[in-house]
Amino acid sequence: DIQMTQSPSSLSASVGDRVTITCRASQGIRNELGWYQQKPGKAPKRLIYAASNLQSGVPSRFSGSGSGTEFTLTISSLQPEDFATYYCLQHNTYPFTFGPGTKVDIK
Amino acid sequence: EVQLVESGGGLGQPGGSLRLSCAASGFIFEDYAMHWVRQVPGKGLEWVSGIGHNSRSVGYVDSVKGRFTISRDNAKNSLYLQMNNLRTEDTALYYCAGDTRSWPESPAYWGQGTLVTVSS
After folding, report:
1. Are B86 and A13 in contact (CB under 8 A)?
2. DSSP letter (8 states) at residue A2
3. Which terminal Cβ of chain A has fewer Cβ within 10 Å, N or C?
C-alpha cells in the first residue's frame, strides 16, 4: 500500500500568514492527489484535484503543486475561515490512502 | 445541487452485519464513480472503498477486504456498502462520496455521514 505522510502535523498561524503544508507519498503517484479541508462536525471539502487544479468555488488563495512523491498545499494569505484540518488523498493505486492530516489553528 | 444522503447506520454486534445505503440526486449518477470514507470521531479520514461508474473498477482498504462489499444500482441512483463480520474497529462515521470522473479518483461531493457503532 502507498503510505502518505504530512508535515507539519499541526501549525499555529495568524490571519494573513502564508501557510504551506507538505504531503509525501511512499512511492510515485504522478499527479494523482487531492487536497481536502475539514472543519469540526462537517464533511470534508475538496480544495484541489490532480495535485494542482483548483476546485470550482474554492478561493484562489489556495494552490497546490507537486508530482511524483512530494506535494504542497499553499494558502497565500490565511483567512479566519481557513482554520481547519487539511488532508491529502492519493488515488494512484488501490487502496487509496489519506495523509494523517494537518491541523491549522489560530496563533 | 448534488445531494448524497446516507442511511443504514446504527448499532451492530461484533460478527454481525449492517448495510449502508446512499441516495444520490442532482447529478447523472450512472456516469460517476463513488466512494465510502470513514472517520472515527476525533481522528483522521480513512478511505474504505470505491467503485467505478459501471462497477468494473472496485477497491477496498485491506482491513475490510473479504468482509465489506461495495455495490451500486444505477437505476435507483444508489450506492451501498454491505458490512459483514463487523469488528469493534469498524466503529466510525461513514461518508458516501461522489467523484467527478467515471473511474475512482478524488471524490468531490460528500454526504453528511451515517454513524456505525459496533459493540456488544
Report:
1. no
2. -
3. C
Give the cell for residue B118.
459496533
One-letter identity of residue B112: Q
Site from B2, B45, B100, B110 to mutate, A interface, most A CB atoms within 10 angstroms: B45
Cβ atoms of B6 and B93 within 8 Å: the answer is no
CA dihedral for B33, A98, B89, B4, sign (positive or negative)? negative
Cβ separation of A49 and B60 shorter than 8 Å? no
CB contact under 8 A, B104 and A32: no
Rounded CA separation A45/A39 (Å): 9
Question: ∠ CA A95-A41-B38 to the nearest 5 degrees?
Answer: 20
Q: Check CB contact of A66 with chain B, cutoff 8 Å.
A: no
The DSSP letter of residue A31 is T
CA A86 → CA A50, B57, B62, B81, B117, distances in Å? Answer: 16, 28, 24, 26, 26
- Condensed to tens digits (0 to 9), the pLDDT of residues A14-66 reads 999 999 999 999 999 999 999 999 999 999 999 999 999 999 999 999 999 99
Q: Is A103 on the interface with B (CB under 8 A)?
A: no
Q: Are B44 and A49 in contact (CB < 8 Å)?
A: no
